[in-house]
Amino acid sequence: MSSIAEERPQWTPFARYRHALWLLTRRDLRVRYSTSALGYVWSILDPLVMAGIYWFVFTQVFQRPVGSEPYIVFLLAALLPWMWFNGTVSDSTRAFLREAKLIRSTKIPRTIWVNRLVLSKGIEFLASIPVLALFVLFAVLSGETVNLNIDLLLFPLAIVLQTVLTVGIGLIVAPLVVFFRDLERATKLILRFLFYASPIIYGTSNLPEELHFWAAFNPLTGIFGLYRAGFFPGELDWFAVAVSAVMSLAFLVVGILVFRRLERSVLKEI
Fold first, then answer.
1. Most buried of 1, 56, 76, 150 (most Cβ within 10 A)?
2. Strands (E), the chain
3. Beta-carbon-side half-sphere exposure of residue 43 (alpha carbons within 13 Å)
């Protein structure tokens, strides 16, 4: 890890930050999978198991129409990015406490300890996209209708908005947990509530009409709509996307302000 703090006068501050971010992210991924025989499989096994359970419950047990067909594609298109969001925010509650000695001994900007979580979980998400593609292919070969369309190009926009949102929330949660340890458990409860309050196992169209407007103020609603738009055009709601963009930027600005305000106090506390 000495290379992280290594002085490279010929590098710009941004280049040094980027280099350190990549080293930390690569270390996280290596540590996470170096002792695992299955490696990459574990990054997709959890969402696949969850998707299988919800698919079985809603299509085989209750046979109640939720979302759109093919349901497994509808489900995975939001469940996979949810795992990225959920994993990053959960790990952000321990971002400073887990690496306290290293954080105190390095001079790199402390935002990197949140951003490396966003990046490492984001890489896992990108690695899971081929699984979604395989289910789309399987659905097509099975004769199911998959409305692949030009909105698939909106996928990168969804990734950008989710990155902004997740970084912002991470920058808020990470320093606050250092002073309020109960916030770690509270965050997990909020994430559990947010899972069911977000259009993951259902679509916005499944909600009562009077809730459609308010659902848009969950920033994940517009983001998940962008992910699904390439397969289910009806899921794209530009009002929800606009709200998601504004709220994501707002969370980022608030996160940066909170982080700057608490950074010195955090270093003293840990």
1. 76
2. none
3. 20
Rounded average pLDDT over 103-115: 85
Q: Can you read off the two tokens belonging to residue 37?
A: 């025989």
Residue 22 in tokens: 């990549």
Angle (CA) 205 81 201, round 5°: 35
What is the amino acid identity at position 196? Y
pTM here is 0.87
CB–CB of 144/198 below 8 Å? Answer: no
Contact in structure between 55 and 139 (CB atoms under 8 Å): no
Spatial distance between the Cα atoms of 224 and 96, rounded to a whole number of angstroms: 29
Q: Are 13 and 20 in contact (CB under 8 A)?
A: no
Token readout for 30 is 């290596």
Asked if 11 and 31 count as a contact pair (C-beta separation under 8 A), the reply is no
- 29, two tokens: 């991924």
- What does the pLDDT look like over 209-261, one tens digit per residue? 888 899 999 999 999 999 999 999 989 999 999 999 999 999 999 999 999 99
Neighbours of 169 (CB within 10 A): 23
- Closest by CA to 30, choosing from 64, 153, 22, is 22
